[in-house]
Specification:
The chain is an alpha/beta fold and 398 residues long. Helix content is 33%, strand content 19%. It contains ten helices and 15 strands. Strands 1, 2, 3, 4, 5, 6, 12, 13, 14 and 15 form a ten-stranded mixed sheet that branches. The protein has a three-stranded antiparallel sheet with strand order 8-7-9. It has a two-stranded antiparallel ribbon with strand order 10-11. The longest helix has 28 residues. The chain is globular and about 55 Å long.
Length: 398
């Protein structure tokens, strides 16, 4: 009898041990230890949005767009860009946000993959009002001198030859947004690979970068301790990963010689998608295994990436790799069509919910507007500091 009584007890202990082991494995796998303390400390910040709460969703999709990446052939790269040029307007061009604008897409095109013919096609899509092009870079064992030269040359090339990038309203300087290839911003990988420049933040700022859009990078070890934030980071050239922490926008004055970082959501949430159930890491990624879905919207809003002066503005920066063939059917197919359709339905059912498709440049402008105490509309602040080199999208864009 005693033996029979012990069986459930032993089974329970084994089940508990397995749960602990699984939890620890997930903890290590997702690199949660890097940001766990911050996540726990900010638990009060993360709260579901009330139905009666005024919400302006500022939705930006930052695409690490690499049509020549992964050793793609020339034919494959051409097919990739041609499909975006054809399918994006055809499948998504009929949707409109609360300002009457179509979905916007920001293509962070790699410096090292520069191809004039492919950039001309992307410029055509952008000139039609569907997005903008910014800068991405993959590099390894680089130096500050070569990095500075390459960034300056690339921004001049994109601006002068293709009519891309933006200009400062007051000075006319050509500016750009940035994402770092392999997530290794400011030499942040523990092994020192895929960068090599400890003062990368300074070089970005000095060459005209208006903001970095790399984070979050979890589950990569390059992930910062600071999460779910809009903040200024000051470079410390003597050591890497200077953006590990910084000053929140709107909570105190921006430090001198600081770079703005615009992060996407990073939360531990409960997956409520129709085909799966369980705990998951919401890192704002859109891909075949993480399709866009209106149910994910609740997690993006719960991250509350905001500025104190505009509590009704929710900055949601998502990321994807739209140049990879495995993601085409997700980003240009029914999952994305359904997401935009469901988003429109969601807004129609909630009078206090408004949504705005924005580019990376526009999101920067909205950050700066909110920081300055802007009381006007979202639409009126899209060009607050930086002007696009492209025609603005119109109600009749198709």
């Amino acid at each position: 009898m005693d033996f029979l009584i012990e069986i459930p007890f032993v089974a329970g202990v084994l089940a508990f041990a397995m749960c602990v082991a699984l939890g620890y494995w997930q903890f290590r796998r997702h690199g949660i230890g890097i940001w766990a303390f911050t996540y726990v400390r900010e638990v009060r910040k993360r709260r579901p949005v009330r139905r009666d709460e005024e919400v302006h969703l500022l939705l930006c999709i930052a695409d690490h767009y690499e049509p020549i990446g992964a050793n793609a052939s020339r034919a494959e790269a051409d097919a990739c860009v041609s499909r975006w040029l054809r399918d994006y307007p055809a499948r998504l061009g009929g949707f409109r946000d609360s300002d009457g604008r179509p979905p916007r897409h920001t293509f962070f095109y790699p410096l090292e993959e520069y191809d004039p013919a492919l950039l001309e096609q992307l410029a055509e899509l952008c000139h039609a009002g569907y997005g903008e092009v910014e800068v991405q870079l993959h590099h390894d064992h680089d130096t500050a001198e070569t990095l500075r030269t390459r960034l300056l040359d690339y921004k001049v090339l994109l601006s002068s030859r293709h009519g891309l990038l933006s200009r400062a309203r007051t000075t006319g300087e050509v500016t750009y947004g940035f994402v770092h290839g392999n997530w290794a911003l400011d030499n942040s990988r523990p092994d020192g690979r895929w960068c090599g420049v400890n003062n990368e933040l300074d070089i970005l700022r000095e060459t005209g970068c208006f903001a970095d859009f790399t984070m979050p990078s979890a589950p990569s070890p390059t992930q910062t301790r600071k999460i779910n934030s809009l903040y200024y980071a000051v470079d410390e050239p003597a050591r890497p990963k200077s953006h590990n922490w910084g000053v929140d926008v709107g909570r105190e004055p921006a430090p001198a010689k600081a770079l703005l970082l615009i992060q996407g959501p990073l939360v531990l949430g409960r997956r409520n998608l129709p085909d799966k159930f369980g705990m998951w890491l919401e890192n704002g990624c859109l891909q075949s295994s993480q399709p866009p879905h209106v149910e994910r919207l609740h997690e993006w809003l719960r991250a509350r990436v905001q500025i104190p002066s505009r509590p009704d503005w929710f900055f949601v920066k998502l990321h994807t790799h739209g140049g990879e063939a495995r993601n085409f059917d997700t980003l240009l197919g029914e999952p994305m069509v359904r997401f935009h359709r469901d988003l429109a339905d969601y807004a129609q059912q909630r009078p206090n919910f408004h949504y705005h498709y924005v580019t990376a440049r526009e999101m920067y402008n909205l950050v700066r507007a909110a920081e300055s105490g802007w009381k006007g509309t979202v639409d009126a602040a899209r060009d607050f500091e930086l002007l696009a080199s492209l025609p603005a999208p119109t109600e009749g864009a198709a």
